Amino acid sequence: GAGVSQSPRYKVAKRGQDVALRCDPISGHVSLFWYQQALGQGPEFLTYFQNEAQLDKSGLPSDRFFAERPEGSVSTLKIQRTQQEDSAVYLCASSLGVGQGNTIYFGEGSWLTVV
Amino acid sequence: AQRVTQPEKLLSVFKGAPVELKCNYSYSGSPELFWYVQYSRQRLQLLLRHISRESIKGFTADLNKGETSFHLKKPFAQEEDSAMYYCALRTNTGNQFYFGTGTSLTVIP
Question: What is the share, in percent, of chain B residues with pLDDT greater than 90?
Answer without folding.
Answer: 68
